[in-house]
Amino acid sequence: MYKSRLQELCQQRLWAPPEYTHRRGGPDHAPLFGATVSVNGAEFENQPSSYKSQLQIYTQKRGKGLPLYQTIRQGPVHSSQFKSVVTVDGEAFESPEYYHTVKEAESAAAKLALMSLPQEASSTEQVPVQPLSYKNLLQELAQKQGFTLPAYNTTSDGSVHVHIFKSTVTFQGESYQGEPGNTKKQAEMNAAKVAFQHFEDGRNNVLSSTVLTRPHLEQGTAGLSAGQQQVKIAEPVNSVFQASTATNHSASGATDHDYHRLVATNPLPLADSAKSSDEDIESCELKDNKLASPEPSTVAEEVNSAPGPELKASDGHRPEIKPSDGHPVPLASTNAVHSTGCGCSLITNRVQVYPRRPDLVLPEGATLLPFSDDAWVAVSLPTLNHRDAELATGADAGRIAPRVWLLRGMICRKIYLVCLLLLLHFASMGDAAYMKYKDPKQPTNTRVKDLISRMTLAEKIGQMTQIEREVASADVMKNYFIGSVLSGGGSVPAPQATPAIWVNIVNEFQKGALSTRLGIPMIYGIDAVHGILTSLGGLVKQLLLKYGQQAFHIPLLHVCRDPRWGRCYESYSEDHRIVQQMTDIILGLQGEIPINHTKGVPYIAGKDKVAACAKHFVGDGGTHNGINENNTIIDEHGLLGIHMAPYYDAIIKGVATVMVSYSSLNGVKMHANNDLVTGYLKSKLHFRGFVISDWLGIDRITSPPDANYTYSVQAGINAGIDMVMVPYHYTDYINNVTSLVKKGVISMSRIDDAVRRILRVKFTMGLFESPLADLSFSDQLGKKEHRELAREAVRKSLVLLKNGNSPNQQFLPLPKKARSILVAGSHADNLGYQCGGWSIKWFAASGDITVGTTILDAIKSTVADSTHVVYSENPDESFMKENDFSFAIVVVGEPPYAETVGDSTELTILDPGTDTIRTVCSTVKCAVVIISGRPVVIEPYLPMMEALVAAWLPGTEGQGIADLLFGDYGFTGKLPRTWFKSVDQLPMNVGDPHYDPLFPFDFGLTINSSQPGFSGAEQLRDRNGRTIYLVLSSVLSVILIHSSILA
């Protein structure tokens, strides 16, 4: 069916016939077929049927059990790879390598099985082609024409063994009966076929009756006056909307019923017609003594220009078209445009007008019309079918209207003037509408509404797609209308990429997006740094803009209720009130929100701001036993009071986007939770930004992931997800969404809601006015004032947990002048360990991953020149006995990790950290600094040390730790979460009945200047007497100013 439609399209547009190139793959007994078709210079390639489906067909034909697939997974959750083992009739076949998705792995395993299984079937055996669905065609016809849907009456002969079904379909007041069938479906299909073909045949008969069939005009240029040059007509310059002179339909055998059908298929109303016949049209002489005149520069110029030479009939008189009785004969149409009185009417034929050239050729079926002249040739063509009519609308419709000069030389000047006025009216309307969404003075909602009204389904689905930088290109952006690109953890265009490299690649993608028909810009997002806080929001915004990135995935609003969770260091606290306060980072990123701003509507202050993303919605910090992506079991009161609370503040502060959590809530995957995503977030909280999935988030709706991708797409989008982080296989996603929409599984209203939200954010960001990145902020990275801010954040985040073994004797601050100082531990001289996960790369790494100051370097630069600093990562007992140290500083902690890899049931520090503490602290007085993203087991070693400092993940500025150890500043930080005694107590949070911590929530010592050991530094307090709290960060520790109300 589609081959014939494509052939017709090429004929209508005078293109060369389509050329097909066939491909065959797979084993001989289960081949996979594909094809590429070339149309007018463009190539289109289909995807062959899948190996999984071919394997299933293979087993079914041979009476074997269906294939069974088992998935093997390796690597961290964020970048897992998969193998698959398929078992067929007791024999197992394993995919040869690991793949990005389960789907690819299973396909590879199925391919291997097909190639290995015995070739019992003929190599020519293929899956039968599905018959044409006339039921669908008939229903589609009814919907397009606004008819009542067809009604089927199907009966059976009642036989017990063999049922024979007969069906009759009622359509447009008539009944059609098809041939009997063995099934009810087949019988109804046969009836639909009869009805559909009858309707099509009737319509074709009517259309043929409207073509002027004067013998001397029927075949090409036959009938032209002697001596004229042959006229060839290629692609027309333009097409005037469906109009021609009317003929007497009764004379040609068409009935009024046929014309009723014709009216329904014609997008324009029929006009009153004058009765006429072939005899009413005089033979015309077309003079071809000059080429077409140049196109007028303006419509006004053409209107004011002199008309072309008069058209003369063979008897020398100007031809006229008159009704036989002098009066118009109205057609069956309730919206008729009345006759002009001169006998000319608009009916259903198309008029094509071409500039006269010596090499013009009339298209097949064209009939030369009498209002041709020396400059132009007008022909009548059969009415466009419904599909062609759709192709003539859309983007080209607005450009057709202004070219009214093609009507030059029409014999009926009244019709000409009416058409001219109408076309000018539509042209002005088109121009005004076209400019609306591009006009920044228009309200955002007006711009959004206007743009959506212009978008095709493909363009809308493209906006709902976010792909990874690795698979993006300018062509991909253009061809698939991609709405967003992201850089996942560690995804960079080049190692140590400069700002110029980043800006260039972002702009390359953006230019691809802007080159589309509507020029909708894309959003470039990034997994920036998880856990950055308020005082650093403005700094982070500048750094991201420097690289051309417009949106990124913070703040993280999860309330971590169990430190065994591998993402607990990304959380601000176990107390939702602290997390709520930390939503102020949104103001640093997006700008201060106006007082009268509408709640729930995204707000971004200008092009020097970036869009924030609140995540992960909702409850991911409360999963069972702290297992990543697991199930949160909680009642409504606990959900709304603890985990939902930070989102109230984020939405009030105008956050642009919200990301959904991998986790489940009481057994329901959040990516498929319509009640919370649509019902609560969008409807109850009135969030008007867009909701985005997590990385491969919809794939994980099923278990195992990607087990049924079509269902996952359906469930995710219908739950309320507006943009899907695909991130790699975007064509699968786009094809699935398209198919589900066309089948009605996903409604167009849901698609429009998603696109409306995405466009609202893009307009709010100012992307339509300033889509391209530049190097305005290229001088910001690594500035001294930025490093000083990071150093200050480190100082204010440290928590002093122990200071001396007796109440009257402090160990800190340490003296800068000493004979010899030992610095030990795996984390003392390791910048990667200081930074933790989500630093440079997803999991970060050990060593000098970036530029910064290690704790060892900071100590060396702080102490006096006369002080000897010795570093030994893990000294043994003999080393300790051979050296006489004044005191020691031991720096130990956790290795870098992210997400599921960080899940831990033991919460111990990295080996040999505990041995280092025992060896050093049993020999010399020591201060222990813990580098970790969460509380760890430390109680058994606490008596051995003189002082204990929780430094969390201080990032690159290790100098901030030395500032406090040696007394240049005082300790002010407080614990944002409970420090347990043993993991057996977990989960344990402040307020729990069994609360018995090693260090409670809100705990933190300060240095007492009245006690021995104090170095003279002043104690720091907030000016308003409020307490300074720390929060955890992956790259920069930052402050939380915690009100005394919570104290």
TrEMBL record:
It catalyses: Hydrolysis of terminal, non-reducing beta-D-glucosyl residues with release of beta-D-glucose. Residues 312-325 have a biased composition (Basic and acidic residues). Gene3D superfamilies: 3.30.160.20, Glycoside hydrolase family 3 C-terminal domain, Glycoside hydrolase, family 3, N-terminal domain. Residues 50-119, 133-201 form the DRBM domain. The keyword Repeat applies. Belongs to the glycosyl hydrolase 3 family. SUPFAM superfamilies: (Trans)glycosidases, Beta-D-glucan exohydrolase, C-terminal domain, dsRNA-binding domain-like. Its EC number is 3.2.1.21. GO terms for molecular function: beta-glucosidase activity; double-stranded RNA binding. This is beta-glucosidase. PANTHER family: LYSOSOMAL BETA GLUCOSIDASE, PERIPLASMIC BETA-GLUCOSIDASE-RELATED. Residues 289-329 are annotated as: Disordered. Keywords: Glycosidase, Hydrolase, Repeat, RNA-binding, Signal. GO terms for biological process: glucan catabolic process. CDD domains: DSRM_AtDRB-like_rpt1. The keyword RNA-binding applies.
